[in-house]
Amino acid sequence: MFAIVKIAGQQFKVQEGQNLFVPHITGKSGDKVEFADVLSFVDGDGKLSLGKDAKAVVKAEIVNELVKGDKVIAFKMKRRKGFRKKHGHRTQYTQIKIESIA
Asked: Could you list the residue range(s) of the whole structural domain that residue 18 is in?
């Protein structure tokens, strides 16, 4: 059984017992979160539910509240002008574990 869920503006295909890194969600380690914005759902019988027919709730637990992604460098330069600009960032993620899809 799996579902496609919208979490923080992104779509994820989730199954029970799966660990995911999602964009940062407020909460502490051990907190329970629910995601009701299910786009499609396939139950154990293989029956597919789409759109408004997919009335499922995905329950998850926050495993690690703050995980930093890889460093991304944005370097801009204009040749022969002496213009150089270096920006960088590390995206913040939250690690969650899917407990149930109901």
From this structure: 2-101
Q: Give the CA radius of gyration of the chain.
A: 19
pLDDT tens, residue by residue, 61-100: 999 999 999 999 999 999 999 999 999 999 999 999 999 9
pTM for this predicted structure:
0.83
- For the chain, the straight-line distance linking the first and the last C-alpha, in angstroms and rounded, comes to 10
Total tally of structural domains belonging to the chain: 1
Reduce the secondary structure of 17-63 to three states and give it as a string. CCEEEEECCCCCCCCEEEECCEEEEECCCCCEEEHHHCCCCEEEEEE
